[in-house]
Amino acid sequence: MVIRKYETSDCEQLAELFYQTVHTVNINDYTKEQLDVWATGTVNLKEWDKSFMKHHTVVAVENNEIVGFGDIDDSGYLDRLFVHKDYQRQGVATAICDKLEQVVTGHKIITHASITAKPFFEQRWYRTVKKQQVIRNGISLTNYVMEKY
Protein backbone atom coordinates (compact mmCIF):
# COMPACT_ATOMS: atom_id res chain seq x y z
CA MET A 1 0.00 0.00 0.00
CA VAL A 2 1.20 3.48 -0.90
CA ILE A 3 0.13 6.64 0.91
CA ARG A 4 0.42 9.62 -1.40
CA LYS A 5 -0.65 13.23 -1.57
CA TYR A 6 -4.13 13.97 -2.89
CA GLU A 7 -4.52 15.15 -6.50
CA THR A 8 -7.56 16.93 -7.97
CA SER A 9 -8.10 13.99 -10.31
CA ASP A 10 -8.84 11.83 -7.21
CA CYS A 11 -11.87 13.83 -6.10
CA GLU A 12 -14.61 11.93 -7.90
CA GLN A 13 -13.24 8.58 -6.69
CA LEU A 14 -13.09 9.88 -3.11
CA ALA A 15 -16.71 11.01 -3.28
CA GLU A 16 -17.77 7.54 -4.44
CA LEU A 17 -15.62 5.83 -1.80
CA PHE A 18 -17.17 8.10 0.86
CA TYR A 19 -20.70 7.20 -0.22
CA GLN A 20 -20.05 3.45 -0.43
CA THR A 21 -18.20 3.36 2.90
CA VAL A 22 -20.86 5.26 4.82
CA HIS A 23 -23.64 3.08 3.40
CA THR A 24 -21.91 -0.24 4.14
CA VAL A 25 -19.49 0.16 7.05
CA ASN A 26 -21.76 2.33 9.20
CA ILE A 27 -24.94 0.34 8.59
CA ASN A 28 -24.94 -1.29 12.04
CA ASP A 29 -24.68 2.02 13.91
CA TYR A 30 -27.03 4.28 11.93
CA THR A 31 -30.45 3.90 10.32
CA LYS A 32 -30.92 3.98 6.55
CA GLU A 33 -32.51 7.42 6.93
CA GLN A 34 -29.43 8.67 8.80
CA LEU A 35 -27.04 7.18 6.24
CA ASP A 36 -29.01 8.79 3.41
CA VAL A 37 -28.66 12.30 4.85
CA TRP A 38 -25.01 11.75 5.83
CA ALA A 39 -23.97 10.53 2.39
CA THR A 40 -26.54 11.59 -0.18
CA GLY A 41 -24.65 10.35 -3.22
CA THR A 42 -24.03 13.86 -4.49
CA VAL A 43 -21.27 16.12 -3.25
CA ASN A 44 -20.07 19.41 -4.66
CA LEU A 45 -16.85 18.15 -6.22
CA LYS A 46 -15.46 21.69 -6.65
CA GLU A 47 -15.97 22.40 -2.93
CA TRP A 48 -14.55 19.04 -1.90
CA ASP A 49 -11.50 19.56 -4.12
CA LYS A 50 -11.00 23.06 -2.74
CA SER A 51 -11.17 21.69 0.80
CA PHE A 52 -8.83 18.78 0.03
CA MET A 53 -6.31 21.15 -1.58
CA LYS A 54 -6.45 23.54 1.38
CA HIS A 55 -5.94 20.71 3.89
CA HIS A 56 -3.21 18.13 4.17
CA THR A 57 -4.92 15.32 2.27
CA VAL A 58 -3.60 11.85 1.54
CA VAL A 59 -4.94 8.82 -0.27
CA ALA A 60 -4.08 5.17 0.25
CA VAL A 61 -3.54 3.18 -2.94
CA GLU A 62 -3.42 -0.60 -3.27
CA ASN A 63 -3.16 -2.32 -6.67
CA ASN A 64 -3.78 1.00 -8.45
CA GLU A 65 -7.08 1.47 -6.56
CA ILE A 66 -7.77 4.18 -3.99
CA VAL A 67 -8.69 2.28 -0.82
CA GLY A 68 -8.85 5.15 1.66
CA PHE A 69 -8.33 8.84 2.26
CA GLY A 70 -8.05 11.38 5.02
CA ASP A 71 -7.44 15.07 5.55
CA ILE A 72 -6.39 17.37 8.35
CA ASP A 73 -6.11 21.15 8.47
CA ASP A 74 -3.33 23.30 9.94
CA SER A 75 -5.16 23.73 13.25
CA GLY A 76 -5.20 19.96 13.86
CA TYR A 77 -8.81 19.28 12.83
CA LEU A 78 -8.92 15.80 11.29
CA ASP A 79 -11.89 16.29 8.98
CA ARG A 80 -12.41 13.11 6.96
CA LEU A 81 -11.10 9.57 7.28
CA PHE A 82 -12.70 6.87 5.15
CA VAL A 83 -11.56 3.39 4.11
CA HIS A 84 -13.06 1.31 1.31
CA LYS A 85 -15.51 -1.31 2.59
CA ASP A 86 -13.34 -4.16 1.26
CA TYR A 87 -10.21 -2.86 3.05
CA GLN A 88 -11.52 -2.50 6.60
CA ARG A 89 -9.28 -3.71 9.45
CA GLN A 90 -6.21 -4.02 7.23
CA GLY A 91 -4.21 -1.08 8.59
CA VAL A 92 -5.33 1.46 5.99
CA ALA A 93 -6.86 3.94 8.46
CA THR A 94 -3.87 3.52 10.76
CA ALA A 95 -1.43 4.31 7.95
CA ILE A 96 -3.46 7.35 6.88
CA CYS A 97 -3.75 8.64 10.45
CA ASP A 98 -0.06 8.10 11.11
CA LYS A 99 0.73 10.29 8.11
CA LEU A 100 -1.82 13.00 8.97
CA GLU A 101 -0.87 13.20 12.66
CA GLN A 102 2.78 13.81 11.71
CA VAL A 103 1.76 16.93 9.79
CA VAL A 104 0.51 18.91 12.80
CA THR A 105 3.10 18.93 15.51
CA GLY A 106 2.51 21.04 18.58
CA HIS A 107 -1.28 21.05 18.15
CA LYS A 108 -3.86 18.85 19.74
CA ILE A 109 -5.75 16.90 17.10
CA ILE A 110 -9.53 17.06 17.10
CA THR A 111 -11.98 14.95 15.12
CA HIS A 112 -15.71 14.34 15.05
CA ALA A 113 -15.88 10.55 15.08
CA SER A 114 -18.89 8.49 14.08
CA ILE A 115 -20.22 5.80 16.40
CA THR A 116 -18.48 3.31 14.11
CA ALA A 117 -15.11 5.10 14.15
CA LYS A 118 -15.01 5.90 17.88
CA PRO A 119 -13.28 2.62 18.92
CA PHE A 120 -10.59 3.16 16.26
CA PHE A 121 -9.75 6.60 17.66
CA GLU A 122 -9.86 5.33 21.25
CA GLN A 123 -7.19 2.76 20.30
CA ARG A 124 -5.08 5.68 19.05
CA TRP A 125 -5.35 7.41 22.44
CA TYR A 126 -7.98 9.96 21.49
CA ARG A 127 -10.31 10.85 24.33
CA THR A 128 -13.96 11.73 24.05
CA VAL A 129 -14.65 15.39 24.80
CA LYS A 130 -18.39 15.11 24.25
CA LYS A 131 -21.13 13.17 22.53
CA GLN A 132 -23.16 15.35 20.18
CA GLN A 133 -26.10 15.31 17.82
CA VAL A 134 -25.58 16.73 14.34
CA ILE A 135 -28.74 17.62 12.41
CA ARG A 136 -28.77 17.05 8.65
CA ASN A 137 -31.99 17.77 6.77
CA GLY A 138 -33.92 17.42 10.03
CA ILE A 139 -32.37 14.04 10.88
CA SER A 140 -30.20 13.66 13.99
CA LEU A 141 -26.87 11.82 13.77
CA THR A 142 -24.75 10.98 16.82
CA ASN A 143 -21.01 11.55 16.75
CA TYR A 144 -18.23 12.27 19.22
CA VAL A 145 -15.86 15.19 19.52
CA MET A 146 -12.52 13.52 20.28
CA GLU A 147 -9.05 14.89 20.84
CA LYS A 148 -5.48 13.71 21.11
CA TYR A 149 -2.57 15.67 22.52
List the helices and strands and how they pair.
Elements: E1 2-5, H1 11-25, H2 32-38, H3 45-54, E2 56-62, E3 65-72, E4 77-83, H4 92-103, E5 109-114, H5 118-123, E6 127-136, E7 139-148
Parallel strand pairs: 4-5
Antiparallel strand pairs: 1-2, 2-3, 3-4, 5-7, 6-7
Specify the CATH homologous superfamily.
Gcn5-related N-acetyltransferase (GNAT)
Counting helices, strands and paired strands, the structural category is: alpha+beta
- Please outline the major beta sheet: 7 strands, mixed
**β-strand amount:** 25-35%
Strand order of the largest sheet: 1-2-3-4-5-7-6
Instruction: Give the CATH architecture.
Output: 3-Layer(aba) Sandwich
CATH topology name, in short, is Aminopeptidase
pLDDT under 50 segments (min length 5)? none
Based on CA atoms alone, the radius of gyration comes out at: 15 Å
- Please count the beta strands (DSSP E, at least 2 residues each): 7
- From the spread of the alpha carbons, the general shape counts as globular
Query: Level of helix content?
Result: 25-40%
Instruction: Give the class-level CATH name.
Output: Alpha Beta
Count of discrete domains:
1
Total number of helices: 5
Give helix and strand order, one letter per element, not per position: EHHHEEEHEHEE
Straight-line distance between termini? 28 Å
Summed over residues and divided by their number, the pLDDT gives a mean of 97
